[in-house]
Structure formats: C-alpha cells, structure tokens
Amino acid sequence: MKLGFIGTGVISDAVIRGLLSTDYPVSEIIVSRRGREFSQKLAAEFDVVWVEDDNQAIMDAADMVFLAVRPQIAEKVLSGLKAPGNTQIVSLIATIPIATLQGWISGGTSFDRAIPLPSVAHCNCVTAVYPGSTKVVALFDMLGGAVAADTIDAFDGYAAGSALMATYFEILENAAQWMVGQGSDYADARRYLAALFAGLADNTLKSPDQSFAALVEGHSTPGGLNEQVAQTFMREKGGAAIHAALDDVFARIKAASGDS
Q1: Which of 134, 123, 79, 120 is nearest to 103 (CA)?
Q2: How far apart are CA 106 and CA 56, in angstroms?
Q3: What average pLDDT does the chain have?
Q4: 23 and 140 share a domain?
C-alpha cells in the first residue's frame, strides 16, 4: 500500500508515526513539502517516507491519499487535482463536506472523512470515520480502533465530542489548584490526578459492556464521597453545561460545513 499526504502537520505526523510502529502493509509514504518541519523530519527518520513538491504527483502515486490542509486554504490547494480511478481519498479537514471535495478533486474510487487525534501516534485513539470504507476503517483500526458513523450528523457529533479535550484538562487543573489550596505541591497534585484519571480510563476501556451511567454507580458508594461530588456536579448544572457546550460546537460545525 502506498500512502500519500497532502498537508504535513501534527495529525499527518501522528498518523504516519503510528502506522510505522505497526505491521500495517505500507511500502511507501509520500508527503507534501507543505509543513516543511514535519515532512523533512519524517523523511530523515523513515526510509519509506519521501517528500514530493507536486500534489498531483502524490495523487498519481498513492493508493490512498490523506488530505490534511487547513480548511481556509483547502480549495486553493486541492482544486483541479485529479485522482486515478482506484485512489481512495481520506479527508482529515474539519467541516469540509465530501460533496465539496468531490467538486474540487475529480476521480477517485471513494471519499471518506476521518477525525484522528494526536494519540494515534501511540495507537491508542479511536478514530471516527464517515462513511467508513473498508480499507479506511482497517487502517484506523491499526491506530487504536475506528467507529464508522452511519450519518453525517453522527460523524459531526463525534467531532463535537472531540472538543471536550480542553474541558478535561480544565477539570484536572481546577482540581489540582484546589488541592494546592489545601497545602499540596502542584507537581504532586498533578501526578496524583493524572494517575487517578489514567486508571479510570484504563478500567473504562476494559469494561466495554458497561455504560458510563453504570460506571458512575459502580464508583459511587451510597452516601459516600464520590456520590456526593457527582450529585453536586449535577445539581450545579454541570451536565447541562456539557450539553450546552456540545450543542453550540455542533451548531458551529454545521454552520461551517453549510449544513445548518
């Protein structure tokens, strides 16, 4: 399998590094010079990676081409490109609909969209894809797993869910600062909370048949401290705030893609 990347930044770098740490059958990876810092470093580190100046040459050479340019310049970079009939196109570009991409790029056997996060570099990230071509799902399965959305709304819902990352760290930072106020050293509080939440994440992954609601109950002794904090969180509209934030970002995604 020959892979091509038009746009070489943080996410392209993570996908490439993740794949090359697995036994995924890749013979060549052609990366665009756009994103010089990443492309040159990848080519220097891996014999199968080489840099190409011409985006059309990447289209012509690769079996699967990843589009990873910024939405603001996507039309300028991609318009007029022609994909051979057997080329699979995978867009990592936020908000740009497949129909728009097909208006810019002619040919290609299939178009998919995907939302890989930086942790694909360590093969521990589940990636949302739409509509989920077999080979695209298989590739992301190698990077930690894939979920194929049945509808574009479901896919955009995954995109909105990925926007919770900063909120996660806000929760940890606020908890750490509160602990500092009680006399803890910040580094110790950070280490403690990081390990606590990493353990919870690990337990969650090892309990795929349990809903999050069931895990709430399983981690809450009746009348205990965990139950008290969870009840306070809900009483203070924490759940409503999450829903409101996701509603807002979902609406923003829809507006940007022209689906609103």
Answers
A1: 79
A2: 11
A3: 96
A4: yes
